Amino acid sequence: MLELTGLAGGYGQAAVVRPTDLTVRAGEITALIGRNGAGKTTLLRTVFGLADRHGGTVTLDGRALSPGRPELLARAGATLMPEDRGVFPALTVAENLRLARRRDTVPAVDPHTVFPLLTDRAGQQAGTLSGGQKQQLGIARAMLAGRTLIAVDELTQGLQPSVVADVLEALGTIAAAGTAVLLVDQHAGALLDHSRHVVVMEAGRVVLDAPNGPGLRDRLDDLLAVR
């Protein structure tokens, strides 16, 4: 379980994320939604030590993690697929996957069964893949590396709806096996069909934190309406 208490962050003196409380529970998918610029990416980067933590705590499986130490989360089995996908362009698809695979973990879903390109293009350099193909490789790497927590920024970016559905089904299986899954996107869309909990950010603050259920879509439509 990932627990954020009063977490605030940004870049240098620029505050982007205001003090935020958030819990991502093991065994379920949490959707973090918000318009572009709402602070979603900076929140993830602050959690993973890639942006400056201005205050608050990050706790993973009961262990408080020091700011600016992304390796601590990696050692604890947490992984982030960033907005730029985080693949190594000079390495092949197979080499990217080999680097991501944890020796102590066998994921509940083999990403090769979700993404045929991992087999078809195993020897191709990742930098020559299309944007959507890099997205698939990045998600596959996260599936292999995340034992306790998988966080994916802009999940649907560059993916066809049919692929999104396959990814969400696979991540649902992984979550059910005991991993906490945090999915970030600008659009609620298909995420609502697979998420147990929904969080909405606006202007660096959480404006909704609720279990998924009847009536939630109407509330989201209002919160995410273009103003």
TrEMBL record:
Q: Name one Pfam family in it.
A: ABC_tran
Please tell me whether the keyword ATP-binding is annotated for this protein.
yes
Where does the record place the ABC transporter domain?
2-227
Q: Which GO terms describe its molecular function?
A: ATP binding; ATP hydrolysis activity; branched-chain amino acid transmembrane transporter activity
The family database entries (SMART domains) matched by this protein are listed as:
AAA
Keyword annotations from UniProtKB, A to Z = Amino-acid transport, ATP-binding, Nucleotide-binding, Transport
Q: Look up the record and give one Gene Ontology term from the biological process aspect.
A: L-amino acid transport
Write out the coiled-coil annotation as residue ranges.
none
**What InterPro entries does this protein map onto?**
AAA+_ATPase (IPR003593), ABC_transporter-like_ATP-bd (IPR003439), BCAA_Transport_ATP-bd_LivF (IPR052156), P-loop_NTPase (IPR027417)
Q: What protein family is recorded? A: Belongs to the ABC transporter superfamily.
**Protein name in UniProt:** ABC-type branched-subunit amino acid transport system ATPase component
Query: What taxonomic lineage is listed for the species of origin?
Result: Bacteria, Bacillati, Actinomycetota, Actinomycetes, Kitasatosporales
